[in-house]
Write a structure and sequence with these properties.
This protein has helices at 15-24, 61-68, 83-88, 90-110, 146-159, 189-198, 217-229, 232-235, 251-261, 284-290, 298-310; strands at 4-8, 28-33, 51-55, 73-76, 115-121, 168-174, 176-178, 203-206, 211-216, 238-242, 248-250, 267-270. It is of the alpha/beta class. β5 (115-121), α5 and β6 form a beta-alpha-beta unit.
């Protein structure tokens, strides 16, 4: 009998890629989403007999119970995502990102769900104490945004649960995501920079010297599958950075990669001496524990976005629907 995976936020940028992978891998998939960005990214899946959609809100207990009843795995993606969106509505961010997450886990455990995969973020590291070193899962967390603060709080809750609980949590600290998805976003660094230059505009870059790790949306989703497929003792009550150590980039380096594919583009840098987020991340743990390897790199993502923009796949890449903020 097929196992069932519950995905909150399954119509979103990452979720709409993940649910397709899960279906391809032979799972039944149940999605809970409020469709705040619309349902077009998953509308074709309504024809799939192994796909069930529930329109609802992760803050509502009845919706959570309906979604989690009888499932084997829960993947929690739904959130108010990113610093701008959380800063704009801080009360909503805490309600959705923290309160709903702890409620979801409690219900999942009560209903006998085996695993709970939580989408966290490398933003939890904040700013490196030593810019010459890499942070890893044992490093101190220094969240400097509401978004990261909510993610850290959920991690602490999950990892502090009794280990005898039926539902074993795993926290995945995602790198900064990029790449194309059925729910496109152009407010992400790699996607936005590439879009601007692919449209022939001048790109203005602030704080080009600060570090971040980057990972393609496809590979972030593959990490979820890796956790679901792993033995419980390897992933339960643990945390993994998701990405590849080679994919730590400064903004300047990302621009350089774009210019290799779009030579002659116009770029202007604006000095910003202080950015609270500056971190290079090690991804050795997920490689060693789960044999996880990325399949796409930043240049691959740049190439993809150039094609999407220049070939006219999207009529208006500047439209608000392609931004979370």
């Amino acid at each position: 009998m097929k196992e069932t995976v519950f995905v909150s936020g399954g119509a979103g940028y990452i979720g709409s890629v993940l649910v397709r992978m899960l279906l391809e891998w032979g799972f039944r998939v149940r999605v809970l989403d409020n469709l705040m960005y619309g349902g077009v990214p998953i509308i074709d899946l309504l024809n799939n007999p192994d796909f069930l959609f529930i329109k609802g809100d992760v803050r509502h207990e009845d919706d959570l119970r309906l979604g989690l009843q009888g499932v084997d795995f829960a993947v929690h993606l739904a959130a108010i995502v990113g610093d701008p969106a959380c800063t704009k509505q801080p009360d909503l961010a805490w309600s959705v990102n923290l309160e709903a997450s702890t409620k979801m886990y409690a219900i999942a455990n009560e209903l006998g769900v085996k695993r709970f995969v939580f989408a966290s973020t490398c933003s939890n590291y904040g700013r490196m104490e030593d810019p010459d070193l890499y942070v890893d899962e044992s490093s101190m967390l220094s969240p400097v945004s509401i978004y990261a603060e909510t993610k850290v709080a959920v991690e602490q809750f999950l990892l502090g649960q009794p280990h005898e609980n039926v539902c074993k949590p795993t926290c995945l600290r995602f790198s900064t995501v990029y790449g194309f998805s059925p729910r496109p976003r152009f407010d992400l660094t790699v996607n936005e920079f590439t879009k601007e230059l692919a449209l022939g505009r001048e790109l203005v870059v602030f704080g080009e010297q600060f570090w971040r790790p980057y990972c393609h949306v496809v590979d972030l989703c593959r990490s979820v599958l890796a956790v679901i497929g792993a033995e419980e003792h390897k992933v339960g009550f643990d945390v993994f950075n998701v990405g590849d150590t080679s994919q730590n980039y400064r903004k300047q380096m990302i621009v350089d990669e774009i210019l290799k594919q779009l030579p002659g583009s116009r770029v202007r840098y604006v000095t910003k001496s202080e950015d609270p987020r500056d971190y290079r991340v090690s991804f050795e743990k997920i490689k060693q524990y789960l044999d996880f390897r990325i399949t796409k790199t930043v240049p691959d993502g740049i190439r993809q976005i150039i094609q999407v923009v220049q070939d006219g796949f999207i009529a208006d890449p500047d439209a608000d629907e392609y931004r979370n903020s």
